Amino acid sequence: MSNIESEAAIGRFRTLGPGWTWPLRLATCVVVLLAINQAFNLHFLVGKTLLANQYMYMLLLLIIPTVFILLPISNGASKTRVPIYDFALAALTVAVLGWFIANSLQMMQNGWELAAPLRASYISMVLWLLIFEASRRAGGTALAVIVAVVSLYPLFAELMPGPIRGFSYPVEIAAGYHAMSNESIVGIPLRAFSNLVIGFLIFGAALQHTGAGTFFINLAFALLGHIRGGPAKVAIVASGLMGSMSGSVVTNVMTTGVMTIPAMRRIKLSAPFAAGVEACASTGGVLMPPVMGATAFIMANFLEVSYASVALAAVIPSFLYFFGLFVQIDARAASENIQGLDRSELPSVRQTLKDGWYYIFAFALLVYLLLFLRREMLAPFYATPVLLIINQVFSKTNRWGRKELLAFVDTLTTLFAELVGILAGIGLIIGALSMTGLAGTLVNDLLSIAGGSPMVLLVIGAMTSFILGIGMTVTAAYIFLAIILAPALISTGMNPMAVHMFIFYWGMLSFITPPVALGAFAAASVAKAAPMATGLEAMRLGSVIYFIPFFFVLDPALILVGSASQILVSLGLASFGVLCFASAMQGYLVGVGRLKLHERALLIAGAIIMPLPGHIIIPLDKIQILGLSAVAILPVMIWAFLREKQSASVGAQT
């Protein structure tokens, strides 16, 4: 579960010899030991439980040099050797962060974040530059530009025009705040990593390296491969489960897609459609509990709630999304009479479960610890060793030897390097907004622009989230808007969890929406399909996700806020709405038949209206909204059913 949303990591990292890989492996092992020491308060390795900022500085000292060693300065730089300047940057990072570790207690006691000695200010400036360069290499040029502009903003904030004017600071104070406060480099993003994300990264990597990906794909084929449009439905299940391990849309596509896309092509689904299914399923995998992307953990920190609360809130929205995908695939298969694979080609359910039952057990243990015992920080540190022990005892094909263990450590090295490089850079953005007071100013300006209208603010939020999701990682886009936009939406009376989830969902949409559509384009490369055609197909298949965030932000019952009866009613209406919407997108309603263009338009209109609460978008109460929806949907279903029945009768007579 890495949430590396920018690009596929494959090919980005250097391939180095033992002289480099062993020190990096050692650093990774120390990171894991530090995390265990801090989580369980064991007092080993360092003889004490570290101060919060001291612990995070130690993580940075071990991980940021890895960024300079593994990620080249540019695409054209050597991928097989480490230039002297990268070694110098790594060594300088160790020295600078070593100084911060040694002085961490003094910083806290004397408030150095706003009144640091001159030497501390100069060293802070160096750390600022080092973190910026690490975030550029890890997150790409778009993120680097935003980090540079926003982190430097405190130096000239008072010179900006009214809406974006803030408090200015001299460079030495700004640098000190970035480096030594709990609001910037070692702020919310890195705290989420150090307290929660790191354990789930380890669990996800352990799942992958014990063969869980193959198990989930085989299980999906065994259960669904033989039914109508089976391989496409397999892609939904397999990619959804894999998303819980990788947390990355592109990584998910490149791992499950190589198996599911060829299977979809075998049953005569077009290449763009097959690639679009995989892209949509992989995108949904990152939104699906129990293990979501790193953004979900950061969301829990922002909202000051447990991660389990975020995971539970995501249950119904993720179900609605995957249900919409399933309906569209089934409708396409029914309308084109596309059958599944022959049972003789598929693995046995019984044998698959017998070979990999312990993966399900590991997930069940994790869910139990998360949801019932509420041990978010400790859950993966219990589930991972249990998984590894069972794998060594019961698995015949995936037992680890020296080679597998080293591959596992190497995977963690790259995951830690890329994610921490991004999160530390995002911390600079948060620090600048916090330091200057710009976040509060923009909240008031947004409210003024929207005229206090929640719907106008939601549309602004959706568009802004989508645009930022094109140029930034989802985590970066989410954090930026969680600071600036979320307070404005919450001030209009909306549920805080629903608002933050709304921003998260819309930030993900760039993966399946042209012109960027990284997830769709990655799937197109596997399917050998036209990228833009795949992007448009993915956009149509995943179209329900453009509306689901509006459903749950307007009706919090869909994120499990409210009584059981309210939740069940809202879930039922939303599910039926998704069924109608998805069927209309494919022009085929199961049990009814094919739909004409005007019938599809009416069905879509009724489906979008149905889940809405009363007096929000249209001045009608809930009963009137349901009546209006029924007027749009029921005549279409009845008329289309009778027409198709008559057509079938005429066909049978002739």
Automatic annotation (TrEMBL):
**Pfam entry (one):** DctM
**GO CC terms for this protein?**
plasma membrane
What region holds the TRAP C4-dicarboxylate transport system permease DctM subunit domain? Answer: 126-565
Domain of life from the UniProt record: Bacteria
Task: Specify where it is mainly localized.
Answer: membrane
> Which key words tag this protein in UniProt?
Cell inner membrane, Cell membrane, Membrane, Plasmid, Transmembrane, Transmembrane helix, Transport
Drop me one GO molecular function for this one.
transmembrane transporter activity
Query: Where is it located?
Result: Cell inner membrane
Q: What membrane topology does this protein have? A: Multi-pass membrane protein
Q: Which residues cross the membrane?
A: 22-45, 57-78, 84-102, 114-132, 138-156, 196-224, 236-261, 273-299, 305-327, 356-373, 379-395, 407-434, 446-470, 477-497, 503-526, 538-561, 567-589, 601-618, 624-642
Question: What is the annotated role of this protein in its UniProt record?
Answer: Part of the tripartite ATP-independent periplasmic (TRAP) transport system.
What name is this protein filed under?
A: TRAP transporter fused permease subunit
